[in-house]
Amino acid sequence: MDFLTLIQVLDSTVRLSIPLLLACLAGLFSERAGIFDIGLEGKMLMAAFFSAAVAAVTGSVWLGLLAGIAASLVMSALHGIASITFRGNQLISGVAINFLASGLTVLIAQNWFQQGGRTPSLFGGGRFTGIDLPFAGVMESVPVVGPVYSELLSGHSVLVYLAFATVPATWWILFRTRFGLRLRAVGENPAAVDTAGISVVRLRFAAVAICGILCGIAGAYLATALQAGFVKEMTAGRGFIALAALIFAKWRPWQAMWACLLFGLLQAIALRFQNIDVGLFVIPVQVMEALPYILTVVILAGFVGKAIPPRAGGQPYVKER
Amino acid sequence: MTLMKSLMGAAAAVALSSGAALADPALIFDLGGKFDKSFNEAAHNGASRWAEETGGTYREIEMQSEAQREQALRRFAEAGSNPVITMGFGMADPLSTVAPDYPDTKFVVIDVTWLDAPNLRQVGFAEHEGSYLVGMMAAMASKSGTVGFVGGMDVPLIRHFGCGYAQGVMAVNPDATVIANMTGTTPAAWNDPVKGSELTKAQISQGADVVYAAAGGTGVGVLQTAADEGILSIGVDSNQNHLHPGKVLTSMLKRVDVAVYEAMKAGTEVETGVVVMGLAEEGVGYALDDNNASLVTAEMQAAVDAARAQIIAGELKVESYYENDSCPVLSF
Questions:
Q1: DSSP designation for B158
Q2: Nearest to A116 among B34, B188, B192 (CB)
Q3: Is residue B1 one of the residues assigned to a domain?
Q4: pTM more than 0.90
Q5: Is B192 in the same domain as B293?
Q6: Are residues A313 and A38 in contact, defined by beta-carbon separation less than 8 angstroms?
């Protein structure tokens, strides 16, 4: 594999790992606050559909992005009400959101556009186009740094740079602000937070809302930047891979970024090299596609240290009388 | 009382038999949906044309999963639909089980030619011949000498497409490189434009400047990416030149719409047996319209038309993947 191929595979990795990264960070906020969120897939799908639909109708991709975020927020509000207010089972609520999104998007799409469950193709202002970093064209001829700068770093859409910026922002919010401390505390010991006089319900809803916003951006990226329109089931299990990445990263932001990049790399390799010849035998492409899940099971089995979830995760909080 | 009974009985018999004579056709789409812009949509177009021209109605269903195939066949046959037109090679096994159970119902299947039943009409297409022609055009239009092929589900039918394409490319430029990738091995591969898009980008990075998509709904992503990256693409099944005017070199037409239209028009009297529609029967071909007129030079057209005449006359033989389960010029 020569250098240029490596750059192209890494470029593909970046593109493919962004929805995973955003969904993973969304799950991070939610799960650190004690609300397990399996509905990442459904939220992304809803966001993908509404962002593509509004972008197609209005011709503006930024309005589409807002619409996608709004749709995702509605879904996470549903999840929040079911888990926090009504103290329901969070896993069931998440699964229900996945089913709801899966069916509702196709139904609304067919009713609205009559194109069999997809939105019309986006073009022009209805898509996020690549942004060329300054001097990208000039730098291209520079020996090693050139292609890295002009192909790998430059030319991505604005959401990619936003997603990478979200990682240090998440770290800073969670570990360096009062709000983040309280959020993490609510996931470990909500009774202590309640004793301190802070509303557990409000914090958890805030976490769920942040989860909704990030999932919304992930879905909008899929439909308006990576592709030019919504197709049914376009998330194709990315929400679950993001969940696996979250567990693989042991619920930490920087590790989450590396986990998502790793899983994105595996997807990119699976696409680029369909059958890898290792001399003795040929590795079929399905091994690469299954590897993210295998790695997660390895992590959970404890081979790479312990993966401890937030202690109060999955348990609804009941105020003591 | 007895007179009444026999009159009622006769009336009922007349009603039933007239119901059978006025049976509506039924159309079962393959996985990938009715609006995949290629294979299934062609069938939809043929059926709609029949419905508009004759004012008839037809029943239809889109497959959501493999398990539904046999169930859908039985439901339509039980309801009295005749003929029952089905799409795709996935129908071969269910049909071999269901067709004998309903000897009065005529079944039509597209892309299957190896079954044996008295009430079955099997329509196959010589996709390798049409793909040969578009392969020639791809090689003539390519400046880098490298062309790409993105298949949908990795099945012999799609390899059949790819093999014909590669032979056409080699006929024009024996030193050309053909990069072939398959989207997946499950029916989900017919509806994954993101993956099709990434495969196209990978092929472009290897130097391909013409990409042929034989992947149903996934092909939409392939064509989109090709248009974005500024290379030429070739559509399949339906005329896809209009999707990106000026960027789609041509489309390999598979006249599934003609097959469905003829079957519906013939109605219950449709001829059974195996029919293979090739270049001679206008079952396959390449699309030429305003959208790609500027891309197809007169030289290209002359070469392709000459090859077409040679294939029809039998002078030029395009190897079929089915013969040896392998392709002489392309390895998958």
A1: H
A2: B34
A3: no
A4: no
A5: yes
A6: no
Same domain, B39 and B175: no
**Which residues are paired to B27 by β-bridges?**
B60, B85
Query: Which residues make beta-bridge pairs with B234?
Result: B212, B250
Neighbours of A143 (CB within 10 A): 7
Whole-number Å distance between alpha carbons of B223 and A219:
22
Angstrom distance (rounded) from CA A83 to CA A204: 10
Tens-digit pLDDT string for chain B (332 aa) = 678 777 776 666 655 554 444 588 999 998 877 877 788 889 999 999 999 999 989 999 988 778 889 999 999 999 988 899 999 888 899 999 999 999 989 999 998 888 888 999 999 999 999 999 999 999 999 999 999 999 999 888 999 999 999 999 999 999 999 999 988 888 878 878 888 988 998 899 888 999 999 998 889 889 999 998 999 999 998 889 988 888 999 999 999 998 999 899 988 888 888 999 988 888 899 999 988 889 999 999 999 999 999 999 989 899 888 888 888 888 87
Task: Tell me if ipTM is over 0.95.
Answer: no
> How far is A18 from A39, CA to CA, in rounded Å?
18
Same domain? B216 vs B314: yes
Tens of pLDDT, residue by residue over A230-260, are 888 888 889 999 998 998 899 999 999 999 9
Nearest CA in chain A to B180: A274
B273 is a domain residue: no
- Give SS3 for B177: strand
Residues B197 and B318 in one domain: yes
Give me the CATH number covering residue B142: 3.40.50.2300
Number of domains in chain B: 2
Q: Which residues of B touch A117 (CB under 8 A)?
A: 33, 35
Shortest CA gap B327–chain A (Å): 18
Residues B209 and B140 reside in one and the same domain: yes
Same domain, B209 and B314: yes
The reply to whether B99 and B89 lie within a common domain is yes
- The answer to whether the CB atoms of B193 and A231 lie below 8 A apart is yes
Q: Do A121 and B192 touch (CB under 8 A)?
A: no
Encoding tokens for residue A130?
């690549």
Domain that holds residue B148: 127-253+284-324
Mark whether B295 and B150 lie in a shared domain.
yes
